[in-house]
Structures are given as structure tokens and as C-alpha cells.
Amino acid sequence: MMSLKKYGSLMLLLFVPFWVAGQQLKVEIEGDANFSNSLIPVREAGEDYSSTIEHESSLYISVLYVNYFDYWFNPNKKWSVYVHKSDIEWNSDFTIKARRTGNGSRVNWFAPGVNIHDGTNYQEISNNPVYFFRGRHGIAYIPLSFQLSGFSVTMGAKDFETSLVFTVYDDW
Amino acid sequence: MFLKYGLRFLFLLMPVCAFSQWDNGQVSVFFSMPEVALVDIEPGVNNRIHFTLSASTESGSQPVIEESADETLWINYSSALAGQQGSRSVTAELSQGALPEGLRLYLEASDYTGGGDGQVGQPAGKIELSNQPRPVITGIGNCYTGDGIQNGHRLTFSIEISDYANMAAAGQFNFVVLYTLTDN
């Protein structure tokens, strides 16, 4: 009996927080970030590519509750989004920057109004996660814009690819 | 004592770590850089060169070439090769017209100078121009020379009388030099 009491309390301590810690929010991404059509061709012999290309918002990120009931019962969850890249075929001279070009929209009619902050200025994405923006409750279709620079004919004719990873963290 | 409360404390702290990250989403950023092969001559307009041969004022002397060399033109290029390609060359040839009999036209590119970058080409020396393409600059990799005069390679044209016996009567002869940036 004593043993049940002793270890029972430990079990409770172990499981209760994990129940709370269960995944509450998820990230969904729609659209693409294909820059191939954005690259302005070299028009004049002797010139290099123009230095920067911009990819306007055709990529949307949604931060959504996993459990739909949380929109009623846990509507004010605070979160923050971090971003980093994971290179597949990349050149260290490239710089990729991202910014948020809108606030997104309410997930449904009974969800609270959109509450989102930061991320509206271009910031560089490196291989280490950096803070991007933060918000409360679920927000859908947050538009993102990207800027790519540093490319040159000296890199040759080649395909380049990197993977952008958006991670949502609990923001206590 | 430590085991009893230490463990409980540890269990309390662990979920804090588990709390922090919820989910992530990934998107691929992709772009393709195409092959580039562009060449031009600067200045882009009024880039004719003239050579004039006059009869000598002294009987028995050779004709006078009033301008035996011209260095006013520059060649610019941009080049991006696919991974497996080695290098490129600029070739030159007479594409229209023909040189008068008894004359030879030569072309020589200078070493690279200017505001470009990358693996620019090396001059191939003084070549005689004909209606067959000949390399003027070789070993061009992924590079750009910069645009305009004072960028790239200065071109020096020179004309020589090769055979007085074959020289024809007076007249005006026009010919066009064609430059091609070609894969090796």
C-alpha cells in the first residue's frame, strides 16, 4: 500500500505534465518557393546576374491547433515560429531572407481575432534556427515573402535547393 | 532524501523540455541557374575600323598603310557552363566580304582586364583572320568580364601586305568579323 502511494505519486508527476505537453499546435505550409522563373537573365555580354531577386507571397504558413476543441477551451495559447534552412545543394555565397507580408486569417468564425507580431522585416535564414514571429491561438495562411541574393554566373549552370524548416515553439 | 525528492524534482523538470517544441513544417526552395553564353564587341555602335592603303609618293617605294593597327575595340563576354563542360573559346572569322588579294588581316586579344570575375579566358596570340573560325581567346570558364570598353580583352587588328604582286587596283573592300563563344 505504501509502495503504491510512493510510486503512484511519482507516476502522477510523470504523466500529468506529459498530458499537458502533448502536441497542441501544428504547422502547415502551402505553396512553393521556386525562384527559377524569378531569375532575371543576363541581357548584356560581360554582365553578371542582377544581385537580388524577390519571391512574393506564394507561400503561406498556418499555425493550427491539433485538437479542434482547443479553439474553444484553450484559445489563447502563445507560440513563436523559428526558421532555419537545411541545405541540399547550395552555395555559401547565397543569402536567403524571409519576411511576413501579412497577418494571416482566423482559422474559423468562432476563433479569436488574429494576434501576430514581428517578422515583417526581411531577416536572413541560416542553418541555425532564428526567431521569426510570434502569435496567439491558431492563425491560417500567413503570407511569406523571400529574397534571394548572391548568385552569379561564376557558379555555373546548376540547380540549387535548400529546405526551409519552420518550427513552432511554445511561447510561455 | 535526495532520491526521494531529487527524482520528483527531475520528473517535474523533464516535461518542461518536452513542452518547448510542438511541430515543424518544411518547404523546398529551388532554383535553376541556366547556361549563359553571351559575347559582344564594345563600343556597340560605330565599331568599324578602317585601314587605308595609299600609293607611295616616292617612285619605287612600297604602298603606305595609313593605319596599320587599330586598338579601339573590346570584347566582353558572360559564360556559365553546365557542370560537366570543360571550357569555352571565342573564335573569330570573316563572315562577309573577302580581303583583297595580297593583304593579310590579323587579330590579337590582350590579357583580360576589367571589373568582372571568375575564370576568364587567355589570349590565343596573334591570329590571321580568314573565313574559317579560329580561336582568339581560350579557356573561358564560369565568368563575366564586365560590360563596356576597358572591360574584357582589347582587340588589336593589324593589316600587312603579303604579296605586292597580287595587290589589285584601288577600291573599297568591306568585310565583317564574326565572333562566336563556343563550347570546346
Structure notes:
The complex is a heterodimer of chains A (172) and B (184). Chain A has 172 residues and is mostly beta strands. Chain A has one domain. In chain A, the strands form 2 sheets. In chain A, strands 1, 3, 5, 6, 8 and 10 form a 6-stranded antiparallel sheet that branches. A 4-stranded antiparallel sheet of chain A has the order 7-9-4-11, with no helix packed on it. The two termini of chain A are 39 Å apart. About 6% of the residues of chain A have low confidence. By secondary structure, chain B is mainly beta. Chain B has one domain: Immunoglobulin-like (Sandwich). Helix content of chain B is 10%, strand content 46%. In chain B, the strands form 3 sheets. In chain B, strands 2, 5, 7, 8, 10, 12 and 13 form a 7-stranded antiparallel sheet that branches. In chain B, strands 9-11-6-14 form a 4-stranded antiparallel sheet, with no helix packed on it. About 4% of the residues of chain B have low confidence. The chains are: A mainly beta (172), B mainly beta (184). At the A-B interface, α1, β1, β2, β4 and β11 of A face α1, β1, β2, β5 and β8 of B.
* Separation, N- and C-terminal Cα atoms of chain B: 80 Å
Largest binding interface between chains: A-B, 60 and 52 residues
> Which fold name is given in CATH as the topology of chain B?
Immunoglobulin-like
Mean pLDDT over the full residue set of chain A: 83
Shape of chain A: elongated
Poorly predicted residue ranges of chain B: 13-19
Largest sheet of chain A: 6 strands, antiparallel
Averaged pLDDT of chain B? 84
Q: Give the CATH class of chain B.
A: Mainly Beta
What is the domain tally of chain B? 1
CATH architecture of chain B: Sandwich
Tally the helices of chain A: 2
Features:
heterodimer; A: 172 residues; mainly beta; six-stranded antiparallel beta sheet; four-stranded antiparallel beta sheet; 14% helix; elongated; B: 184 residues; Immunoglobulin-like; seven-stranded antiparallel beta sheet; 1 helix
